[in-house]
Amino acid sequence: MDSVATQDRPTTETDFDTTRITAEIDTLAAQHRGKNDLFRAAVAKLLKAELLKASEAAEAVLLKDRHGRRCAEQLCHVQDEIIRILFAAATKHLYHSPIPSGAERMAVVSTGGYGRGLMAPESDIDLLFILPYKQTAWGEQVAEVILYCLWDMGLKVGHATRSVDESIRQARGDMTIRTAILETRFLTGDQALYDELVTRFDAEVVQGTAAEFVTAKLAEREERHRRGGQSRYLVEPNVKDGKGGLRDLHTVFWIAKYVYRVRDSKELVARGVFDPQEYRTFKRCEDFLWSVRCNIHFLTKRPEERLSFDLQREIAVRLGYTSHPGMQDVERFMKHYFLIAKEVGDLTAILCAKLEDQQAKPAPALTRMMAKLRPEMHRRRLPDSDAFIIDNNRINLAAPDVFKEDPINLMRFFRLAQKHNLAFHPDAMRAATRSLRLITPEIRENAEANALFMEILTSDNAEIVLRRMNETGVLGHFIRAFGRIVSMMQFNMYHHYTVDEHLLRCVGILQEIERGGNDEFVVASDLMRKIRPEHRAVIYITVLLHDIAKGRPEDHSIAGAKVARRLCPRLGFNAADTDLVAWLIEEHLTMSTVAQSRDLSDSKTIENFAAVVQSVEQMKLLTILTTADIRGVGPGVWNGWKAQLIRTLYYETEPVLTGGFSEVNRAQRIASAQAEFRRAFTEWPEQDLNAYILRHYPAYWLKVELDRKIRHARFLRASEEAGHKLAINVGFDEARGVTELTILAVDHPWLLSIIAGACAAAGANIVDAQIYTTTDGRALDTIAISREYDRDDDEGRRATRIGDMIEDVLEGKVRLPETVAKRASTKGKIRAFTVEPEVIVNNQWSDRYTVIEVSGLDRPGLLYQLTTAISKLNLNIASAHVATFGERARDVFYVTDLLGAQINAPTRQAAIKRALIHLLANGDIAEKPAA
């Protein structure tokens, strides 16, 4: 708590003239004498205008000097003055008491975030009106005047009216109230009441309860992180409540304030919690986060705390970031943001370590006494190292200069913790961070250091240990290319994490693949057991390095391969394995691209892929890498459909590489898939089952996962028994955040376009599609659309409306072009992105079809527009492969001309390309597409 009425603040243009405003209020009081409601309304109008001017001035100063904390202080100062003016107006003009009794006393106190003396432009105002034990109507009347005026000004106000006794009693039983009172700041009124609260709070609530408070606040922090997503590297972070955000800094200060009874963060240096450098870090982090938060509030005109994609670029510009080769301005800004978030986490760890040392959570008396008599009970030497000790089951330094004496100890520290399954002592982590200059070129080339690193990478719990190495900076200094991508974000909606976080998560997923037992990774786990033993280290280093060159002007796959060629020999790899790592990194996107955007039943697709992978061993490694990479992008990105596509591509290609008879092998796998279906689906008589299996083409049995095959069988029978010409089944995939529409209809060339148009007309955005045709001429299409509602029943009703729209279009009741035109506009966060349109027309990917690959910014109605444009170009669509990667749509169409031939004429190919690029760039179909 701060018993000082006003804090020292720099005078800037945001200071408003309290004397002038008070004089104007006196004039208003004379004009509206005896008309309290009119007077109050006039005061609120005057103060609202003054607050708006002060806020505009604060924004101008922020844009000029970019000091977030200074802006928050100035906004808070203005709010303080407004409340003092209102209190004075209420007690002078409305409820004046010439000789106040002992009951006519009040202290107006700010609490919570407002109590810290810092306010964002759209923040709530939290007030506590402290009244004496004996109360009269006077106190309630004054509080009401203040509150009603603030509400009339359009401000959000949280408030409580309590006596000192009530405040103390509630603080004892409620940790939220206790924290609010901890941060109170006197504004105006009776100072003695406030001082009584301060004194009694210290004596009756705080004293002897530090351990309880610390435990509660840290548990609250963990729960907040859990709700918001544990990683501080989520690419749309919450500046206030996210991991590494302002609330974490607040938690650090709450705990320090409660335990050490300090009134200002700078006192933490005198108490030995932070050293001067760490205190400067604290202030720098705070100022940056306040800059971001204030700019978000000014920009959105609301209390928005999430740094969403559509805000990131504008905030980057407001904060003065510029683009560099390989990195956009917004990516440079977000990298800085995540580095700050990391430093906030470091400060929290330092404080927790200090609290443990000073026994803020005291051990039982007997334990403390025994620890003094026999310190070896909780501190003992590590069995195979003199440099480190075990300190309460955490690895710590045996002496302060352990790293300085032998810098290789920086690697031994992490390897020994991993080997003995020990947690890391914060003091040792702190020492490691301060020893980064010891990692010289000589240490990077040291054989033992590199061998230790490879042991860390390929041993249990590698993800955890590598993350700790990354937090201290050791990983980025030892592998300097990794240091370049620390906290680097990719400005797109596909990747959920920063590049370094993605790579570390991929290592953890690789270990999960190797352990086996997870149905998500059946194929990859099986292949992991079958790769050559010497290639185990190859796949681990490849997974760690596959995105190492993000943020460079050159294609990251090619640049990453160059990094691997330089780094792998240092890490102990021979020339052949170095070449293999480089090849895997250069091709790490190939398998995913082919599986999701090519016709896997086309022999040319398989031949081309086989030519790239060259050998079964390389394909095994690439399959494992692809699985870990997709799964590491974020929740819901890896799913059963993608797993089945990867499986199909692998097993379709294997006989080509081994020289086996492809068709025979394929027939065996089709028979195996059908047998698997028979074993799992026992609801029908054998005769019905045999007839149903014959209804699907061979490619269906290879490309569709078992669960979906069973759902399809039930759906087809139920639809036909009900006599439906058109049937739609609705399903929900929570992991991917999509709604799936499975549509059964009579097949015809425009069906995909009609489905896509109906979805667009209903405002639904298609993110992927699986399209199959039965041997009896029925189309079985599954369309995944982005969810619009949180509740499944709401989403189900929306899906029903889309189904009705499809039926109306097929029956000619609705004309699509006009309906779609009303809905097909780029909206939401996609507006924040730009994607260069690209169209490839290729005859080398298929012997029978011309393949058109289209890539551009996704938008509602895009698939409908594309399929309509292709039809108007007099092309037949034989198959379509629809996928969305965040804001980027990548759709591939296998087409022929109206006679069933490939498009070979260069002029015709150029016309197709021009028409589709025009569509992607301008959002409409050219009036006269070339024939």
TrEMBL record:
Listed InterPro entries: ACT-like_dom_sf, ACT_dom, HD/PDEase_dom, HD_domain, NT_sf, PII_UdlTrfase/GS_AdlTrfase, UTase/UR
Region (Uridylyltransferase): 1-383
SMART domains tied to this protein: HDc
Annotated ranges, domain HD: 499-622
UniProt entry tagged with the keyword DNA-binding: no
Activity regulation field: Uridylyltransferase (UTase) activity is inhibited by glutamine, while glutamine activates uridylyl-removing (UR) activity.
Keyword field: Hydrolase, Magnesium, Multifunctional enzyme, Nucleotidyltransferase, Repeat, Transferase
UniProt-recorded name of the protein: Bifunctional uridylyltransferase/uridylyl-removing enzyme
Organism: Tardiphaga robiniae
Lineage, opening ranks: Bacteria, Pseudomonadati, Pseudomonadota, Alphaproteobacteria, Hyphomicrobiales
Gene assigned in the entry: glnD
